[in-house]
Design brief:
Layout: H1 4-9, E1 13-23, E2 26-35, H2 39-46, E3 51-61, E4 69-83, E5 88-93, E6 96-100, H3 103-110, E7 112-120, E8 130-138, H4 145-153, E9 164-168, E10 174-176, E11 179-180
Antiparallel strand pairs: 1-2, 1-10, 2-7, 3-4, 3-8, 4-5, 5-6, 8-9, 9-11
Length: 181
């Protein structure tokens, strides 16, 4: 019962349909997110605060005799911002960016993760069982220090999904996630 308030703070992002698909010599990840963007975050973006969203992926091989072996760990950062001069929202990753007329349009793109190369085919062995994990979160550490202090104490800034975990067996071709932890 004491953990119920903590669960209410997180979990405002839901992960749906994570899938690993082999494409030539690499595995690519696709997933859908349902982001519950609150009014405080909308206001912050509209006033020029850049929000950083981090997608994290891990692939590990369970071992009964020791800690799980990490096969691949990948992160991808998205920057969501508003430019008052052009009156457009911008979603950026690395040097790439897209502009949108509304926040909803930008969030729709953020909610669809497609064609993300997460590991090489040579990193896994056929017919062995692996554990894949995925999450998306608002990264408060990349924000200006003045916002970090406010955000840590305010649950409106706590936007993160739980880890979505699923078993993955290379050779299945296409595998998806069914279990969240």
């Amino acid at each position: 019962m004491l953990l119920a308030p903590l669960a209410a703070l997180a979990g405002e992002i839901e992960i749906r349909n994570p899938q690993l698909v082999v494409d030539e010599d690499v595995y690519i990840l696709a997933a859908d997110f349902n982001i519950d963007f609150n009014a405080r975050l909308e206001e912050a973006v509209a006033k020029g605060v850049i929000l950083y969203f981090v997608t994290e992926f891990e692939l590990s091989r369970p071992r009964w005799y020791w800690l799980d072996e990490k096969i691949s760990t990948r992160t991808q950062t998205f920057r969501l911002s508003y430019h008052a001069l052009t009156r457009q929202y911008r979603l950026s990753t690395g040097a790439l960016h897209q502009s949108f007329a509304t926040l909803d349009e930008a969030l729709r793109i953020l909610e669809r993760l497609r064609n993300w190369t997460v590991f090489d085919k040579s990193a896994v062995k056929a017919d062995e069982t692996y554990l894949a994990s995925l999450r998306l979160r608002l990264d408060l550490t990349q924000m200006p220090k003045t916002f970090q202090v406010t955000a840590i104490a305010n649950r409106d800034w706590n936007l993160a999904s739980d880890w979505s975990r699923w078993t993955f067996v290379p050779g299945d071709g296409k595998t998806g996630g069914a279990e969240s932890k």
